[in-house]
Amino acid sequence: DPPAKPARLGLCAACHGEAGMARIPGAPNLAGQKLDYLREALRQYRDGRRDIPVMRAATGPLTDAELDQLAEWYSAQTPSRAAP
Amino acid sequence: DPPAKPARLGLCAACHGEAGMARIPGAPNLAGQKLDYLREALRQYRDGRRDIPVMRAATGPLTDAELDQLAEWYSAQTPSRAAP
User: Fold this and answer.
1) Domain boundaries along the sequence of chain B
2) Which are the contacts of A35, defined by CB distance < 8 A and separation ≥ 6?
3) Which member of A27, A31, A36 has the closest CB to residue B37?
4) Which CATH fold topology does B9-75 show?
5) What does the alpha-carbon distance between residue B49 and residue B44 come to, in Å, rounded to a whole number?
6) How confident is the model at residue B44 (pLDDT cuts 50, 70, 90)?
7) Among A40, A49, A79, whose Cβ lies nearest the Cβ of B79?
8) CA–CA separation, A10 vs B21, rounded Å?
9) What is the pLDDT along chain A (84 residues), one digit of tens a residue?
10) DSSP labels for A21-81?
11) Searching chain A, which residue's CA lies closest to the CA of residue B16?
12) Are B25 and A36 in contact (CB under 8 A)?
């Protein structure tokens, strides 16, 4: 069954949408993205290897379990055919 | 009409697939990704702000036009519901 909606989702939804379709220019779609890729990217935002201030701020306080929960949520979403 | 298949696509397809569905662990799906996000990410791989050696090698020799052509190609692909 699909993963439960993570408590922290609101933090991400502002730019990425709850269903993983980007809402602002520059933000990527996350819906249906590879789980391992999302988990690794989130860790790199948190530890600064990916040096994107807004993502560092968003992920800084999150635990590994919370990062993985968000990665599982977005990976489980079905990409909708949004405008490129 | 959909963009023509870029000459350089083979370089990317090994890991990302011709249609933008990742073929290897750790590589992201690119199909239907936001065009502006892909264009910016490719530039950051090329100039090293995103420090991923394989992507630096792949994008290093490419012109802006070639990067944009690849971004347009992948952004125009329809994501298929692959396993997360």
Assistant:
1) 9-75
2) A71, A72, A75, B84
3) A27
4) Cytochrome Bc1 Complex; Chain D, domain 2 (1.10.760)
5) 5
6) very high
7) A79
8) 27
9) 778 999 999 989 999 999 999 999 999 999 999 999 999 999 999 999 988 899 999 999 999 999 999 999 999 999 986 555
10) ---STTPPP-TT--HHHHHHHHHHHHHSSS--HHHHHHHTT--HHHHHHHHHHHHHSPPP-
11) A34
12) yes
CB spacing of B84 vs A22 below 8 angstroms: no
User: Nearest by CB to B29, which of A27, A32, A41?
Assistant: A32
| Closest chain B residue by Cα to residue A23 | B34
CA B12/CA A6 separation, integer angstroms: 33
Task: Work out the burial of residue A66: count CB atoms within 10 Å of its CB; fewer than 13 is exposed, 13-18 middle, 19 or more buried.
Answer: middle
Q: How far apart are CA A9 and CA B60, in angstroms?
A: 36
